[in-house]
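**User:**
Make up any protein.

**Assistant:**
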Amino acid sequence: MSAALLRRGLELLEPPEEYHKKKPVNHLRENLQYMLKGRLVADKAVTEQVLAQNRGRKSKDQPPEKTEKKKPEGTVFTEEDFRKFEREYFGVP
């Protein structure tokens, strides 16, 4: 590369002189006053009402439904029926 191109590249990388002339200004105080000026606090009763309405609506907040467990049904056959079956099919006295 030629020296002229390198010099031109370095000039582009350096900040302009106008940038160095201006002093940085801190706008923190003005910004804080602006942010706090428009602050609106809702009434506590209203916020509690909104929170109460939204509480418990999510599925994770709902307790699982309890299903009644079915009791195992008793057998229809009696011991006498089982003994009769054994005698007929297995030949056990």
Residues 2 and 8 are 10 Å apart (CA to CA).
